[in-house]
Specification:
Blueprint lengths: L9 E4 L2 E2 L4 E2 L2 E2 L2 E8 L1 E4 L2 E2 L2 E8 L2 E3 L2 E3 L7 E5 L10 E4 L2 E3 L3 E8 L1 E4 L2 E3 L3 E9 L2 E3 L2 E4 L5 E8 L1 E2 L1 E4 L2 E14 L10 E4 L2 E6 L1 E12 L2 E3 L2 E4 L2 E6 L2 E3 L9 E4 L3 E6 L2 E5 L6 E2 L8 E4 L2 E5 L1
Parallel strand pairs: 1-6, 2-7, 5-8, 6-9, 7-10, 8-11, 9-12, 10-13, 11-14, 12-15, 13-16, 14-17, 15-18, 16-19, 17-20, 17-21, 18-22, 19-23, 20-23, 22-24, 23-25, 23-26, 24-26, 25-27, 26-28, 26-29, 27-30, 28-31, 29-32, 30-33, 31-34, 32-35, 33-36
Antiparallel strand pairs: 3-4
């Protein structure tokens, strides 16, 4: 069968794919589960990609994806935006190497966990996700352009990013134009217990409703025109960035809470920095511990 019927099951396992191989509506050059329930794709080795869109109960697990061209293509696409027919889909146990995007996560009820990403430009790219979890992934990259977790011009509703290990030469995380719309003002994003290591600063630009808690962040953070941000009980070490403060505010961010964190800075860039355009009353800081390195 090319794909499952409404309540059936389909398994694609133990394949190696380089050239396109047609299997009805399932193509190994991008093994697309267009519409179907309870589909499992597992134990494959491929140079191309695997995706599901309008699907429920889809599992993509224990596959090894390696692009022959660094920084090209998308290894996996999970879900579709603005669609209520998808849900309860899982991507786990996969190893993904050398892609432009490791996994694009789209739509609702996607769990992405226990995957390993190596030398991807954007390991995990978030697109209008809802009720989803990004947990326990390992992301490593020696590429200067690399980003661990990246959200751009999108919404994130009631979702969790937790317990991930990110160690990249580029940027650990970027949240750019997230939850901007009035209809998204009550969306919540929980970012907790992650380890973020990177050589370059991370950025929160015009992003809203992000709660950082109990993370180990070894990079400075630039915050620009953001809103409804909480930093609670994190360790944030921006001391390696001699050009910027550990927390640097530009534009005019609103309703920012910074409390009970351990903040490490270069002795030349002490304390939180706010540009002249920033209304300082919108940033509330208390019970933080500051340390300084030479």
């Amino acid at each position: 069968r090319s794909h499952s019927r409404s309540y059936g099951e389909y398994f694609q396992r133990s394949c190696w794919a380089k050239e396109p191989i047609e299997m009805g509506r399932l193509f190994l050059n991008r093994s697309l589960v267009a519409i179907g329930d309870n589909v499992t794709i597992e134990n494959n080795e491929a140079e191309t990609g695997i995706s599901y869109r309008y699907a429920k109960g889809t599992i993509i697990r224990n596959n090894t994806m390696k692009s022959p061209y660094k920084g090209k293509g998308i290894a996996m696409i999970g879900g579709e935006v603005d669609n209520n027919t998808i849900g309860n889909n899982k991507i786990y146990g996969n190893t993904i190497i050398n892609y432009m995007h490791g996994v694009q996560v789209r739509g609702k009820e996607n769990d992405v966990y226990n995957n390993t990403f190596i030398d991807c430009d954007d390991a995990i790219f978030l697109m209008d996700i809802k009720n989803s979890k990004i947990n326990n992934n390992t992301i490593k990259s020696s590429l200067r352009r690399s980003k661990g977790i990246f959200a751009y011009r999108t919404s994130i509703e009631n979702s969790e990013i937790s317990d991930n290990e990110i160690d990249v030469t580029g940027t650990a995380f970027n949240f750019i134009y997230v939850n901007e719309k009035r209809s998204e003002k009550n969306y919540k994003v929980s970012i907790k217990r992650n380890t973020f290591n990177s050589d370059f600063y991370s950025k929160i630009l015009n992003a809203h409703n992000l709660n950082f808690e109990n993370n180990d962040i070894n990079t400075s953070i630039r915050i620009i025109d953001a809103g409804n941000l909480t930093f609670n009980n994190n360790g944030i070490d921006g001391s390696s960035d001699i050009y910027s403060h550990t927390l640097l505010f530009r534009g005019n961010s609103k309703n920012v809470t910074i409390n009970s964190n351990t903040l490490i800075a270069s002795k030349y860039k002490q304390n939180t920095y706010t540009a002249s355009s920033q209304n300082d009353s919108e940033i509330r800081e208390w019970d933080n511990t500051w340390k300084y390195k030479k």
